[in-house]
Design goal:
By secondary structure, this protein is mainly beta. It has one domain: Deoxyuridine 5'-Triphosphate Nucleotidohydrolase, Chain A, CATH 2.70.40.10. It is 5% helix and 36% strand. The protein contains 1 helix and 12 strands; from the N terminus they run βββββββαβββββ. The protein is globular and about 55 Å long. It starts with a strand and ends in a 28-residue tail after the last strand.
Length: 144
Amino acid sequence: MQVKIVNKSKHSLPEYATALSAGMDLRANIDEPVTLRPLQRSLIPTGIYIQLPEGYEAQIRPRSGLAVKYGISIVNSPGTIDADYRGEIRVILVNLSSEDFIVNDGERICQMVIAQHAKVGWEQVDDLDETKRGTGGFGHTGQH
């Protein structure tokens, strides 16, 4: 699939790290380093703008390496970029560690996965079909 993209950053276009990667890395596009203190969050610009086709979204997800090594995640994970959004992709990073973390220009800060989604229409009814699970929620099976 071809997707229109505007790159106002100082960096190359988002790309897949390997041939079978589902997500593309996005990079911070900042003029000076941003220090995230413990439990602090910051909106980090990427300089990337995209135009997705109808029926698709871009999901913004944390990078596992930043998460495990430094406790860096995304507050609204996964973030959703709708097909009609035309603004800059910016990422809400959060520092879940007990130490400061410095975000540098060009650093890979998240992954972006393009995904197809369905639109639903509601059919209001008085009852739902019965299932074996029924109303069982979190931990309902008693298994670990």
